[in-house]
Amino acid sequence: MTPPTLTSPPPQTLRRRGRVVLSTVLAATLGITVVSVATNASAADALISQGKPATASSVENATFPASAAVDGNTGTRWSSTFADPQWLQVDLGSTQSISQVVLNWEAAYASAFTIQTSANGSTWTNISPVTVGQNGLQTLNVTGSGRYVRMNGTTRATPYGYSLWEFQVFGGGGTDPSLPTSDTPDLGPNVRIFEPSTPASTIQSAVDQAFNAQLRSPTAQFGAQRHVFLFKPGTYGRVWANVGFYTTLAGLGLNPDDVTINGAVNVDSGWNYGDESNATQNFWRSMENLSIVPEGGTNRWAVSQAAPMRRVHIKGNLTLAPSNQDNGQGYSSGGYLADSVVDGVVSSGSQQQWYTRDTRIGRWDGGVWNMVYSGVQGAPANAFPNPPHTTLATTPVTREKPFLYVDSAGLYRVFVPALRRNSAGANWPNTAGTSIPMREFYVAKPGDSAARINSALAQGLNLFFTPGTYTLNDTIRVTRANTVVTGIGFPTLIPTGGVEALNIADVDGIKVSGLTFDAGTTNSPTLMSVGRAGVHTDHAANPISLQDVFFRIGSSVQGKATTTLAVHSDDTIIDHIWAWRADHGGAPTGWAVNTGDTGLLVNGDDVLATGLFVEHYQKYEVIWNGNRGRTIFFQNEKPYDVPNQAAWIGPRGNGYAAYKVADSVTDHELWGGGSYAFFSANPSVRVDRAFEVPNRSGVRLRSVLTVSLGDVGTIANVVNDVGGAVPNPAGNTTPRNVVAYP
């Protein structure tokens, strides 16, 4: 019999837990060195190999050329013929100092290889020991110099050849002068920085000017205005800051108590054009890293989605409802509080649902449908649905959001808190983590192109987005482990031509926070993806994390996107996202106008979502294919604009569930989920179930509910065929509750 012809395998689907064991066995057998993933290159070392001429000992075929390993695209690769030895080399153009080599192996990796340099391309010097490869990212810190750098593979780990998605060489000892960095950066015209010596009247005038321009404005909700007010360490006299759309107040201390504001950081109803009677559209604003001594003893923060309060100390009480809540109109709907301390009472009032994580409070009063707490010291006991409190003693895995601060020398830095497990209470003072000087960040400003931003990443820099709108004609690609991508003031990324806005490689420890995405007018298959489909690499020790990342399909743009966020990487932390297919906007919206199928697709295993808000998508709004997934707090509204039942038939009957766990999943948990119907375009529309999950003991839902808002539209069951229908005969907006399933 003729042996079968081998072809290069598809991307590996085995988790690296098993692969590391294999590598260790190979190392012991061959007597060679195992090199694990190291930290990323210093910002002083540039990526000097990307786009340079590359050659190889062989190629499997024309689909896998040597150049594909140095093109900056993790979706293309070099693959050799199926024989030993093989090499891949890059010509840097001149002799350069070499400090680090990063190899992104496909499933066909080397079980023995060295990194070599040469001045002439013929005489080679080893600058690494003989090393065992591994499926996925591998970073080698080296010392050497040369014009040519190559991976010289001597033994294959598989029957296939050698295959690299990317081969990156860092060195050169300098940075691109066209991309300057600084420890005292210019944060742009939308950022105001105050000091304790700044007259209170100056601060008050600045915050009033920003807010008053939005009073009953028909355009502010989807406007281009962005306002960030930063406070250097110290105590500030009376400031009453009303907080409108796209506005952030934040302290610049290392701890919240380093900045004290006397007065208020206030969000109320009564000011938003067309929605003056309630607070359900108080979106896109934030408060971080400061303390407040509230005037009158209570600070008001009546917000809905995409309005996080993080790392705040309220030296008094906190109310989350608007001042008119007792008049039957003052609704507020959804919010997020984390890593904070409230000395007094938190009153939720008319908040329909709320998530609080890793915080200390004096006491919590109130609850409408579902108040969810994880790791909250002082939280009410778990009692859902009466009263409607869902309480977990700890949060399984947390990594708090990076934040900007000023050190004692007046230099700016970004602090990146460390990973915590089974956490409870605020993570300050004495927060463990890493401080990164701002000179290791490229400070992006509106008008920067995707090419310029990618050049900064290739240079070895982190990214810091300043407030404004960024139009992208290409994908921003983050490929290096531990890169920090963060923003202040709701910087908004808008892809053009149907490209993906942001792509995160399947590598350890990338941190993305503080970004907003608007879908462009040409449909994007995804707005953001994490990892690569079909690849399962163990990131448990250093997961990728996403925090305060918001997605919009339809806003000031008639946007379209099939899926807004796709998470392929294992162990990813999703900490507070709002994926929103708009039911209203600055541009017209509608069933055939701002189209979007799915808000969140999870293919990775061991993914944790803490604070998941997904609304109005046209098919399954969350699809969870990975195993051992966990969600703490899920808030959803079904699409308002379904024209008729015939237009909305899913695979299992009428409509699509809000939260779909794939039939293949054997282990999944959800605590505290709600899905609401308001089929205003056609109240006769119904959906058969809000949550659709496989019937097995390892798939568990706790404290979930459905509501028909104003009895407009029908959800026939809560979970699968269990829970009963809304509208509920008991009355208007009365929920159906399922305490535990199964």
UniProtKB/TrEMBL annotation:
Upper classification of the organism: Bacteria, Bacillati, Actinomycetota, Actinomycetes, Micromonosporales
Cross-referenced Pfam families: F5_F8_type_C (PF00754)
Protein name in UniProt: F5/8 type C domain-containing protein
Domain F5/8 type C: 36-172
InterPro entries: FA58C (IPR000421), Galactose-bd-like_sf (IPR008979), Pectin_lyas_fold (IPR012334), Pectin_lyase_fold/virulence (IPR011050), SACTE_4363 (IPR059186)
Superkingdom, natural source: Bacteria
Species this chain originates from: Actinoplanes campanulatus
SUPFAM superfamilies: Galactose-binding domain-like, Pectin lyase-like
UniProt signal peptide: none
